[in-house]
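During the no-cost extension, the postdoctoral fellow (Dr. R.K.) reprocessed legacy sequence entries with the updated structure-token encoder. One reprocessed record is reproduced below for audit purposes.
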Amino acid sequence: MPVIAVANPKGGAGKSTTTLVLATTLARQGASVTILDCDRNQPIAGWRGGDSQNPVVVDSATDEETFKTKLDAHRTSKQFVFVDLEGTASRLMSRALFRAHLVIIPIQASPTDAELAARAIHLIKDEGDAFDKVIPYRVLFTRTSPVITTKLEKAILAQLNGGEIPQFRNHLNERAAFKSMFFHQLDLEELDENEVNGLPKARENAMALTEELITLVMEKEKAA
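Re-encoded structure tokens follow.
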């Protein structure tokens, strides 16, 4: 089953938010989903400690030695396995990238994020070259305005397009609901519309991005 790694060397780029939004949305739609929380801070493991009834499974006790065994076990029983990676390059990251069917690289529209995303892309390509394998990846813009595209965002998009860097068509917008998921330890469907601003739009955004992810994964499976 598809293994989706979420990676970027920069902290705060939106790795854990991206992972949680996509995984819980898929699980809410009926898919069986596991998240391997490989971030040392374990933000998603903390979320799972709340009252959410979302069926997504979070496995946080994962290190370099146990990663392959755990990944193989989850892949045999789940339809999707997400790997939320820590920022620094490591043997664990190398193992995750090698086994990924798709790597998502979240970035905010900033020069620093773009620069470090380029490092992530080089790491992915180096890992693929080492094993004579093409590792598919997509850049995902996070915390963007759903209404206005800033000049800086346009400039970074132009650079990515010029370098023929593959990107998600949908962005993960800046929404209070995505932060509220961590605060209340609930999924988007469980949050209260009376307490969280813009929740319906956040749900629409999450669904559109999740549907795009499913399409990408299906296309890659057919190609394989």
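The chain has a mean pLDDT of 90. The CA atoms of residues 94 and 127 lie 7 Å apart. The remaining legacy entries will be reprocessed before the final report is submitted.
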